[in-house]
Model the fold of this input.
Amino acid sequence: MWLRNQTSLADLILEGLFDDSQTHLFLFCLTIVVYLVALSSNTLTILLICVDHGLHTPMYFLLLQLSLVDLMHVCTTFPKMATNYLSGSKFISFLSCATQHFLYLSLGGAECLLLALMSYDRYVAICHPLHYKVLMSRKVALMMALTSWFGASLNSLIHTVILMHFPFCGTWKIHHFYCEYPAVVKLVCVDITVYESTVYISTIVLLLLSIILVSTSYGFILHSVIEMRSAGSKRNAFAPCSSHLIVVSLWFGACIFSYMRPSSQHTPLQDKTGSVFYSIITPTLNPLIYTLRNKNVAKALRRVLGIQITQ
Done:
């Protein structure tokens, strides 16, 4: 066991995601390509929504927040893993580990809340279109975004401070490529059964509340769509929802796999696989799904590119 004043100066060891084999070198290069796609596509989505006035609506404001979360998510986890792999180093300072833990947990919580609130936005747009500007004004959308960011950050700060307060022991080796909770908590060398149970319950509550809000919203949406007489109206109403449902399924599926299982059932390989999916793959797919399946975003992109070409 090591003491508090020693802990603040010590380096932790990140096992990493890849080894020195040719296969892993190829996978690393592939991951770089995926990372660059995530970086560019999310940045493009943010800039597009900011520049094009046709996208200055609550729906796209929330989409901008989602793209910002995804952009920060890949930047929180991938650069350190890539730097360690290329340099041959596996060290991360205690402060950097705590910061990384806080950021990824904040961003994960914010994404859960944003996806739930985006489903409410679709519910209001389809089920109460005449009252949409009142129920989903810019002020309401701003409050939703601030609530997501502040609530997720506060929850993450509490969990990070408590976890990093515990003494660590052993080789201080984290069997992961970043400081994720299931991997870090295994370094603690005191009984933290109560804390683990609290984290497990709070995670389930956050995920279940988000899933319940999404399910309820889409239950009402489906009922309204079924009652529409025109097939064209049905397609137009459900087109934005289909993109959101795909994103929701990918994100919550990965979160349930990673966090709604008891810690005794976690293995390093499973943790890494789940983390790669929701920290790198999902942020890459989200903007592509919304851009390719959303006619308004595609039209805005053509408008912006057309203006640039003309100029």
